[in-house]
Amino acid sequence: MSTLVTGIAELVTNDPSHGRGPLGLVADAALVVEDGAVAWSGPRRRAPAADASIDVGGRAVIPGFVDSHTHLVFAGDRAAEFEARMSGAHYDGGGISATVAATRSASDDVLRSRLRDLVAEMRGQGTTTVEVKSGYGLTVEDEARCLRLAAEVTPDTTFLGAHVVPVEYAGRREDYVALVTGPMLESCAPFARWIDVFCEPASAHAFDGEEARAVLEAGLARGLQARVHANQLSAGPGVRLAVELGAASVDHCTHLTDADVDALAGGTTVATLLPGAEFSTRSPYPDARRLLSAGVTVALATDCNPGSSFTSSMPFCIALAVREMGMTPVEALWAATAGGAAALRRPDVGHLGPGGRADLAVLDAPSYRYLAYRPGVPIARALAPEDSGPRT
Ligand code: NIG
Ligand code: FE
């Protein structure tokens, strides 16, 4: 069955051959959805006939957001840690152990229900693709359990056993790296598409360059693809390691040297910026302008987690990126959609040209510009053409 979507004041296709500018904008547009894919998009006056139709009432339609970096499988919260930071305390990843303890003692049902609530909360704000990491289990059983639950909601699951060295391995870091690269990887790989590591030599909790290399190489050898947490708290080897190993994405990129920027510009690794983390840790924002000027592909994601960034809102991240990181509204929307798709190597999402998945988000506004122009106002939501009316 085909469905014609009309009443689109402005359509963002992210297909420059299809419309104006890098966002491929079409004014007074329509779109035909068939079997979950975009069959046609363009000016309304040229729209073909379809079996049913939906009128979105003069609103903007954009590709659903691609949130390429989240940590949604966890129990408990760290609101008190957030409050302490807002009173001057420093973030170094040490609070992760509190979430690990809460997650280990939670039932599958508790973890599943939190995970599903967060995915629904994201959909309600326009997100249609989400990556989900493990990293709050840190035992063979708990990491595999977290990934099994994550795989219930997304194909983009990421094994992050190397999130921090858990407290029971204090003073025995090499034993923990051996566990992660051995039995833990073996148990988790069937549920994971990606391998990740928190590479941050400045944090006593995270992993240095050599440890990160061992983790990523083991994951690659087991058939997973790489993505990396790097350069969040300080400049370090993580960004260059990610580029060298051909990682799809290196995430945070808050503290970069010129050599890091040159490496990114010469490689294929996407730089994924997570402004919710800087907001929630009261840290300086990454310099997106510097990366874009060097020709680096930039993505935006929420990093949704209970410690460093407890937001599920891509529009909030877009507003921060525009106001605080030197991005234009066009660049920020592209980074939150097509950029996220590049970071996940998902050519099927992040655009609304023919052949793309019909993952639409509708804005209670006439233009994409309102995403940053009306910060904090819930104007975006995912639209499922199969189940939303009115129909004719
Ligand atoms: O991406 N940096 C490491 N991991 C998460 C934070 C996790 C936490 O604080 O619970 C991040 O910011
Ligand atoms: Fe993260």
From TrEMBL:
Named cofactor requirement(s): Zn(2+); Fe(3+)
Annotated cofactor note: Binds 1 zinc or iron ion per subunit.
Pathway in which the depicted protein is active: Amino-acid degradation; L-histidine degradation into L-glutamate; N-formimidoyl-L-glutamate from L-histidine: step 3/3
Gene: hutI
One GO CC term, this protein: cytoplasm
GO biological-process terms attached to the record: L-histidine catabolic process to glutamate and formamide; L-histidine catabolic process to glutamate and formate
UniProt catalytic activity: 4-imidazolone-5-propanoate + H2O = N-formimidoyl-L-glutamate
SUPFAM superfamilies: Composite domain of metallo-dependent hydrolases (SSF51338), Metallo-dependent hydrolases (SSF51556)
Annotated family: Belongs to the metallo-dependent hydrolases superfamily. HutI family.
Binding site residues for Zn(2+): H69, H71, H229, D303
Binding site for 4-imidazolone-5-propanoate: R78, Y136, H163, Q232, S308
Protein task: Catalyzes the hydrolytic cleavage of the carbon-nitrogen bond in imidazolone-5-propanoate to yield N-formimidoyl-L-glutamate. It is the third step in the universal histidine degradation pathway.
Pfam families: Amidohydro_1
Transmembrane segments: none
Subcellular locations according to the entry: Cytoplasm
Amidohydrolase-related domain span: 61-365
Molecular-function annotations in GO: imidazolonepropionase activity; iron ion binding; zinc ion binding
Protein name: Imidazolonepropionase
